[in-house]
């Protein structure tokens, strides 16, 4: 009997988490995704606390919490991830205080780090090339998908801008598209020759078959009923071709927009030109890409320059 009581005290934190999860499901009607995240990440804190000798709720104090936040930072967790975990713990503490298991919500005693801006990810040149050439252009859907990928990479379009295009938005003589961006603002998107060729091939040989005898102004159509393609469908086809091309990591439509901007700046494009092509109202929004190119330049320097430190001779004479 004594052993059982001892085990209950030792597992007090875990029991508290079980009650909180039950509350999330029964009273908050939280989604399975939310419940899974809360359970896993609060459980992570509990395991950390146990390793510090903390097995009871009353032993959790500011010092333990600060140690946990320090540990998360040492584990290279993103600031946004640390902020989310602390928010979850505060919800946990609020529940326990309301239940009477805690006198006060101790999790409110520490501050979350200020989320920093994460540098945008992008594809290398060979990855972008492999991705846009992955579709099988012997089919109508393949012609469409090749045109989509070429246009997104060539023009840096948002996925909403892409699916909103109509056939008459193309100006073949100037090699450009008329695009409506955020807030209904109109801008011109430029196309290179590969994108123009892919788009013309799709309109000539692919789109008529996808129309299925219907009438539509939409440029990109789905193959099921000939209606305008959705943003979700673009995301799915992008994932499919990323796997086919052997491109690792999470590939999403905005990644091609990041890639477009980064490759332009790497190639010497003026920042304000990139701003205009992206349709950014504020230059500061575009400037984050300069940090990406600077980081790339530093990496190239470290690897290439004989006196960068990494490549210096170890001779001390």
Description of the structure:
The chain is mainly α and 317 residues long. The chain folds into 2 domains: 108 residues, DNA polymerase, domain 1; 128 residues, Intergrase catalytic core (hpI Integrase, Chain A, Orthogonal Bundle), CATH 1.10.443.10. Helices cover 58% and strands 4% of the residues. It is built from 13 helices and 3 strands. It has a 3-stranded antiparallel β-sheet with strand order 1-2-3. A hairpin with a 4-residue loop joins strand 1 and strand 2. Helix 6 crosses helix 10 and helix 11 crosses helix 13. It is elongated, with a radius of gyration of 27 Å.
* Total domains: 2
The CATH H-level superfamily of the largest domain is: Intergrase catalytic core
Predict the CATH topology of the largest domain: hpI Integrase, Chain A
Q: What percentage of residues falls in helices of 4 or more residues?
A: 55-70%
Strand order of the largest sheet: 1-2-3
Outline:
This protein has 317 residues and is mainly alpha-helical. It has helices spanning 2-10, 12-26, 32-51, 62-74, 79-99, 125-132, 140-155, 159-163, 193-211, 231-245, 253-266, 271-278, 283-304; strands at residues 170-171, 176-180, 186-190.
List keywords for this structure.
hpI Integrase, Chain A, 2 domains, 317 residues, three-stranded antiparallel beta sheet, DNA polymerase, domain 1
């Amino acid at each position: 009997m004594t052993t059982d009581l001892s085990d209950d005290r030792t597992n007090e934190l875990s029991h508290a988490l079980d009650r909180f999860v039950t509350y999330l499901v029964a009273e908050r009607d939280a989604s399975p995704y939310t419940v899974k995240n809360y359970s896993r990440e609060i459980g992570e804190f509990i395991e950390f606390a146990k390793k510090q000798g903390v097995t009871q709720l009353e032993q959790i104090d500011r010092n333990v919490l600060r140690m946990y936040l320090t540990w998360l930072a040492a584990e290279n967790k993103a600031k946004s991830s640390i902020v989310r975990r602390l928010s979850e713990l505060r919800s946990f503490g609020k529940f326990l205080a309301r239940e009477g298991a805690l006198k006060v919500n101790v999790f409110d005693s520490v501050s979350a780090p200020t989320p920093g801006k994460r540098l945008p990810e992008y594809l290398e040149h060979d990855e972008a090339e492999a991705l846009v050439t992955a579709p099988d252009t012997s089919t109508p859907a393949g012609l469409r998908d090749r045109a989509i990928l070429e246009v997104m990479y060539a023009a840096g379009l948002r996925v909403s801008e892409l699916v909103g295009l109509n056939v008459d938005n193309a100006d073949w003589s100037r090699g450009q598209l008329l695009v409506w961006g955020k807030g209904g603002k109109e801008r011109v998107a430029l196309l290179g020759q590969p994108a123009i060729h892919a788009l013309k091939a799709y309109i000539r040989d692919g789109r008529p078959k996808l129309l299925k005898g219907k009438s539509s102004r939409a440029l990109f159509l789905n193959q099921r009923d000939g209606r305008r393609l959705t943003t979700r469908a673009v995301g799915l086809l992008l994932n499919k071709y990323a796997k086919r091309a052997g491109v690792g990591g999470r590939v999403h439509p905005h990644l091609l927009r990041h890639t477009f901007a980064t490759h332009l700046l790497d190639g010497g494009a003026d920042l304000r030109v990139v701003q205009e092509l992206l349709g950014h109202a504020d230059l500061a929004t575009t400037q984050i890409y300069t940090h990406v190119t600077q980081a790339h330049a530093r990496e190239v320097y470290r690897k290439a320059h004989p006196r960068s430190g990494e490549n210096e001779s170890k001779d001390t004479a």
